[in-house]
Design a protein that fits this description.
2 copies of one chain form a homodimer.
Chain A: H1 5-18, E1 27-29, E2 36-39, E3 44-53, H2 65-81, E4 86-96, H3 102-118, E5 122-130, E6 135-143, E7 160-164, H4 169-178, H5 185-192, H6 200-207, E8 211-214, H7 219-230, E9 233-236, H8 245-254, H9 258-264, E10 271-275, E11 285-291, E12 302-304, E13 307-308
Parallel strand pairs in A: 4-5, 9-12
Antiparallel strand pairs in A: 1-2, 3-6, 4-6, 7-10, 7-11, 8-10, 9-11, 12-13
Helix pairs in contact in A: 1-3, 2-3, 4-5, 4-8
């Protein structure tokens, strides 16, 4: 018989998922007490938190528990690097029904731990509760290592807009899965397990990025956040956005314009940033520019090839 | 017509709940970017996280949104003070269905903000997602202000066991609500809105507490965590536990022995700690003592009046 959480119990599960966790030397008190204690040598802690809800952010028939764990960690760690910071540690919350196989919970946690270990990040604590549907919360922490944080509000007229990472792959994967298919495998895997370009966040900060965010809602939507916060106008040149082959294949098969995935799709956790032209790091693709607002294009506007974008606006909850 | 989250939208709700939030001077970057940045002058950050699930931790017919917010913040802030630390900031996650009245979400957040403000704690970030049931996550942070953290593992034979705060009130409140009643009001309110003795955590640390935790699972269950982590035996003297009048009334009305509420009831977030006899702070009640384990009473055992406790064991999820 499959062992379930009802049999394993809260404390049994906590023991199963915390034993053998690697612990960085900055972890002064790890899991098992009322709270964790983490060293913050820089004197400033970068903090981000996300909730993932079964049926909204993942489906058990589309993603394995391990993949959900990788994704839950990845989307938080991407927020940390999008500040120009280095991820250091994280805590988790986990809610699940009593009839969930214990192995599912253990594999989820293994996914979180493996994604964290890519960056030397320690899991320092968590909470386990009973819930009708699976709920995962991750709160991640990072260090700026003496640098200023890169905010959304620093874009200036004359800056170039550049990105690194994937755009639209995860969204194309969802389009495929929604139609009951499992291929192209590359886009399905991109939905299941995003691969944020972690190292590029601190690298962009060192190169002098004036603003940055990770693409979680969609390129246009997230650039609007930068344009809003910076009180500027951003124009994207669609010619600069090469459409990768797998996205062309999905577009042909589904009848969706491929550019819609690239401009509107979130969840790949690419990084998009603004730089003075000389500061754009190698490996980043320049896709547009920053200008002042005017009567016709008020600050906060994002245009594509100089015109208002009328495609998918990007993801928003309750929308 | 009542405005719902479906109409307000994710970004509308974020704006509604973040505007006007007080921001402490240690908040370097507040809500609205990929991540927050908080000053940590002490160089060590105390971190705790909890998930609250509708139907498990609260019921909308028993608690107002405002009360759920107060409680969500309180249970995390209690974990911070139980380390001997001073709470400084917190982040929240909020999941809810699209048909939830927007006012419910705003009042929940007001409850979190008001509980936080009691201690000068800043809300520095959060996440808002769609979900079938209401889910609230809180991750709270604290500063040790140069002190060592008070762990569960420091109890030593010869120490006295003392507590401060309420024991069993919230559990008696649940017993009343479960029977469809709304009084005695004091115990129902204790369930809805715990009042942890926040100031006593740092005070106990300064007084030399050798171990400490907050009572969230129940006095016996939480003392077992201390006895386990410290490899000692703890004995509680039931005579030392005065039964407050409202608990006697609930006991008489429900036929439950009053001591069961006191020994097994969680969620009041009293603090229980061990001290050398001379170090017990004024206002704390000595209720027992710490001894070495032996053949009959192995380390990790908690007894009441020298005998194994056979009443309610305290709360555990999936139990």
């Amino acid at each position: 018989m499959t062992e379930t959480l009802g049999g394993t119990g809260e404390f049994g599960l906590i023991e199963a998922v915390t034993k053998g966790l690697p612990r960085g030397e900055d972890v002064l008190v790890g899991p098992g007490d009322d709270a964790a204690v983490v060293a913050v040598p820089d004197g400033r802690m970068v903090i981000t938190t996300d909730l993932l809800i079964e049926g909204r952010h993942f489906r058990q028939d589309w993603s394995s528990a391990y993949d959900v764990g990788r994704k839950a960690a990845a989307q938080n760690l991407a927020d940390i690097v999008a500040m120009g910071a280095r991820p250091t540690s994280l805590v988790t919350g986990f809610g699940a029904p009593a009839d969930l196989p214990t192995s599912w919970a253990v594999e989820l946690n293994q996914g979180i731990a493996d994604e964290a270990e890519l960056l030397g990040v320690s899991i320092v604590g968590g909470d386990v509760v009973q819930s009708d549907k699976v709920v995962v919360s991750v709160t991640a922490f990072g260090s700026l290592d003496g640098r200023a944080p890169v905010l959304r509000s620093g874009a200036r007229p004359g800056d170039e807009v550049a990105f690194v990472g994937r755009l639209g792959w995860a969204e194309a994967g969802v389009a495929v899965l929604n139609r009951g298919f499992r291929s192209p495998r590359t886009v399905v895997d991109a939905h299941r397990r995003p691969q944020p370009p972690y190292a590029e966040g601190p690298r962009a900060a060192i190169s002098g990025a004036s603003s940055m965010c990770d693409v979680s809602d969609g390129l246009i939507a997230d650039l609007r956040h930068i344009a809003d916060a910076s009180a500027v106008v951003i124009d994207i040149r669609s010619q600069a956005l090469a459409i990768p082959e797998p996205l062309q294949a999905v577009a042909a098969a589904t009848g969706v314009e491929a550019l819609t995935f690239v401009l509107g799709g979130g969840d790949d956790h690419a990084l998009v940033a603004t730089f003075e032209p000389a500061d754009v790091p190698d490996g980043w693709t320049v896709i547009g520019s920053v200008a002042e607002g005017n009567e016709n294009l008020p600050p906060g506007t994002v245009t594509v090839d100089g015109a208002a974008y009328t495609g998918a606006p990007g993801h928003a909850h309750f929308g």
